[in-house]
Amino acid sequence: MRNVVVTGGTRGIGLAITHALMRAGYHVIVLARNSTQEIANADPDWLSFVACDLMDVDFASFTKTLRDRFPIYGLVNNAGIGPSGILSTMPNRQIAQVMQMNVVAPITLTKYLVRAMMVAREGRVVNISSVVANTGYTGLAAYSASKAAIEGFTRALAREVGAVGITVNAVAPGFIETEMTHGLSEQQRQHIARRSALHRLPTTNDVANAVTFLMSDMAANITGTVMTVDAGNSA
Questions:
Q1: Can you tell me the distance from the alpha carbon of 161 to that of 155, in angstroms, rounded to the nearest whole number?
Q2: At what angle do helices 141-161 and 105-120 cross, to 10 degrees?
Q3: What's the number of domains the chain is made of?
Q4: What was the pLDDT predicted at 28?
Q5: Among 51, 89, 162, 213, whose Cα sits 20 to 30 Å from the Cα of 39?
Q6: Would 220 be classed as within a structural domain?
Q7: 235 domain-assigned
Q8: Does the structure show a pLDDT above 90 at 34?
Q9: Domain coverage including residue 42
């Protein structure tokens, strides 16, 4: 059974990814600050929870412990924060937190976990981006910048590790009903849905299915790409 690490896999998109990967036959290692009852009650043959605060962790020692416990096949960099606010009034501390959590942490975690994949000469990395990396959105300047950085990282790393059989891709969800979009009014959500080619909002399961496909053998020759899941909103 292949082991896949999912950061922030206890809620929202991350939880949907966790469930989808387990259904597809992977053993999922969920990294998050806190577990939930649902995660705690999961079958240990299919899911392991490892407590980790990506904002405050010694990546070198943590990942060594992780690799000693599990041969890592895949990594899904899902955990992220997206505080909204006009950039001119956003505290510097908050900007730094967005960049640390959404850019520095996933890049550093990947740095250490991809080493084992390189030795094994196989592996998958899937980064969760966002459509706002390309479209922008009022009040999400720092968040948009962080996701644009992740897409650049995806393309460059795909070039670095492709020769040893590792694929690196990103999935860019549109606006989805999660904790990060609760600030949108019903009118805003309806407006976004009407703008979409399919006249609806995508779900967390739609994103999870895209991740599961990119993790699978069916996507063996897909790398350096960004798969958009937004019901055609940015088409």
A1: 11
A2: 20
A3: 1
A4: 98
A5: 213
A6: yes
A7: no
A8: yes
A9: 3-229
Euclidean distance between CA atoms 193 and 70, whole angstroms? 41
Asked, for residue 167, whether it belongs to a domain, the answer is yes
The predicted-structure confidence for 36-79, as pLDDT tens digits, reads as follows 999 999 999 999 999 999 999 999 999 999 999 999 999 999 99
pLDDT value of residue 182? 63
CATH of the domain at 221: 3.40.50.720
Amino acid occupying residue 85: G
pLDDT of residue 131: 94
Catalytic site includes residue 112:
no
Q: Which of 26, 112, 137, 143 is catalytic?
A: 143
pTM of the model: 0.94
Residue 94 has pLDDT above 60, yes or no: yes
102: left (phi over 0), alpha (psi -120 to 50) or beta: alpha
Residue-wise pLDDT for 140-165, tens only, equals 999 999 999 999 999 999 999 999 99
First to last CA, the chain: 37
Amino acid identity, position 220: A
